[in-house]
Amino acid sequence: MSLENTTSELTDGLSNTTTTQAPEPTAFALTLLLRPEYLSVVISALCIIWLGAHGSLRRPPSAAPIKTKKGQKQPKEDKFAEGLAASDAIMFPILAGILLISLYYLIEWLQDPDILNKFMRAYLSIMAVASLGRLAGDSLDVLTSLVFPSTWVDGKGTVYRIDSDEHHQYVVDKATGQNKVVRDRTSPLPGFLSILAPSKKAGDVLWLVRHLFTEEWTVKFAMHGLVFVKFNIKLNDLLGFMVSIPFAAAYHYLGWNILSNIMSAGMCYATFMLLSPTSFGIGTMVLWGLFVYDIVMVFYTPYMITVATKLDAPIKLVFENNKSVSMLGLGDIVVPGMLMGLALRFDLYQFYQKQIKLEPVELVSETLAEDGTKSVITTETCERRVKAPFVDPRGQWGNRLWCTQFGGLFPVKEATSVRAATAFPKPYFYASMVGYTAGMLVTLTMLLVFRHGQPALLYLVPGVTGALWLTALARGELKDVWGYTEDGSLDTEDVVVDVAGQSKVVEKKDVEVEKKAGEVDKKEGKESGDKKDDSESYDVFHFSISAPRIASKVIKAT
Q1: DSSP secondary structure letter of residue 523
Q2: How far apart are CA 42 and CA 317, in angstroms?
Q3: At what angle do helices 427-450 and 457-474 cross, to 10 degrees?
Q4: pLDDT tens, 26-73?
Q5: Distance between CA atoms of residues 194 and 186, nearest Å
Q6: Directed axis angle between helix 88-110 and helix 113-147, to 10°?
């Protein structure tokens, strides 16, 4: 969903009154507690941002690509579909204003907004299927990891790892560092859940289920001579897409607020997956540009409030009770949220940056002597940077639960991969969450004081950007924050050493990592519709979904 399709307005159906006297602090606190729609707005927005920010985590430039087992291909990394540029700070408010004004006059021209609402519900229901499917698929991944984690800890602090290929559990011997198979644990389930596999046959069935839900499936689509597409997904992604269709259909025909809120959450989540502010500087400029737009459209024109109240589509969160209705436009979630997601990815970047090690390497060079009769071999020792391998956080939340002992907040230290994926320090993200919460509370306060719709970005933008830059100032990291970018320029290999003719190291620099991931599969693009042979028939249209190959031991058992 583009930012042009969002509104930025928070309204409340309070009883009509002419007084503008500010409520007492105690009365305000009681109002928030006794009016659940207020708390629902704040909590829902924070939850969507938290989920979207964590779902948008990618391998940071300071980490090495994910380690793969021998014989496996390097997985293709997710990339943001679009990164913002500095010019977007001007273009976003202009485009958003054009769309908002167009909708306003269209509503005025139609006289009856129901016609436009039906069209918008139909259009956005179709558009939201993919975004809601992504949210549902990732949610199912979390549920799957709770039942089938890859790591768990018992009451004594022993870390068990579950090997899906060999169908056993093992622990790492602290003395030798080697994997030691635990003979009495052949279940794919952790801890007390292993009682669900009382026999070998039941255990084999569970291994099969684990295999189908955790391994990737292959989807192929081809039209002869035109296109060939091949990509990997998980079963949960397919299930999530199937779940999103009835949700979209139900919203289209019923129009319930709860269904609209679910669709809106999915659209916000998908936006976080696709869009990156590129850098803190660009993100801050874009937010302040929309900050001005929000103030003008809410306070000085009728466009925002009219469109927000008359347009019934999944472009806002709506919470109501018998007396009032509270609404929060998706722009008030997506616009600050994309910068907050960048803050979380910067926290991850810093975590891996601190793990970079310097290893000594010998540089051997050969030069001719001045008389040209013999060569001189010179050996020098320099250092090269070695990045820690990235641990994909997807599917790690179940591991975190099973690796955290009772009464603790973080996984045990021995579960290093789980800590790296889920429990890395997050000072900038938490600071932005505090700033966003403060901005929302100020918005609600102004709403109760003036009893008029408030431009939420008026309070959210200073809260979020102020929290981030003040945190950088307090930590002495302004230069690091300003220099961080997701345009690919920081994603470099470990080391390249340039040597002068005198066998001295004059420069050590990084080189860019190959950005065209997936080129190893280039030959596969000649398959199906693109492949020519001498047979009498060929596939004009091809679509298939292939399940992962199951180990022979599981097939025999079932």
Answers
A1: G
A2: 10
A3: 150
A4: 555 555 555 677 788 889 999 999 999 999 998 999 888 877 665 556
A5: 9
A6: 130
